[in-house]
Design a protein that fits this description.
- By secondary structure, the chain is mainly beta.
- 12% of the residues lie in helices and 62% in strands.
- The protein has 2 helices and 9 strands; from the N terminus they run αβαββββββββ.
- The chain has an 8-stranded antiparallel β-barrel.
Length: 218
Amino acid sequence: MKRLFIIFITLFAFGNAWAQEEAEPVKLHTEIGVQTNALFGRLVNASDNGLEQNPYLLTGKLVFGNLAIRAGIGGQHDKQVDRVDGFANTTTTLKQRLDLRLGVERRMSLDDRWQGSLGLDVVANWTQDKTIEDSGFDVITDTHDLQYIGGGLALGVKYQVTKRLSFGTEGYLYYTIGKLTDGEFFKNFPVSEDKIQKSDISNIRVGLPAALYLILEF
């Protein structure tokens, strides 16, 4: 009986140690990516080919094992005011944009330093182009508003330079639906009628892997 008890304890201890060795704890880490194209200029003008530039200037990933939760944000805010000397005429041009992305990602090891990824994303966008012309007699505002939501797949690859530093790029294929609103508004003359035109739109958005990200890992 004593011999059986010793054998049982030995097998239990060995099995427990083996299970702990096999089931390594999943390590969590965070990745922050900054698009270097936005900092140093565009490497490829994809819009000339009917494709759009990657709009996500800043990305973040919470990584656990071979899976990750991914997010991205991008935007634009440009304002220009033109004046005619000797006149009250001014023209103000305003461009605003906000891009958001949230998704999940599966990672695959390609080599010692290379890693591939397949992501499934939900995306949203708000864009507004506005022109305000002040002639001194009236203020006419022309607006072009676009809002859309959608989703799709993203393929990426990254190269590990050091433990904390890597470079990566990605391409994507998204299907989006949204609304486009064009408006013309008059401030001072009520006899002039405001004009508003709304359209429902759908697009397939293709992004080339032309954006290079500098990625810091914590």
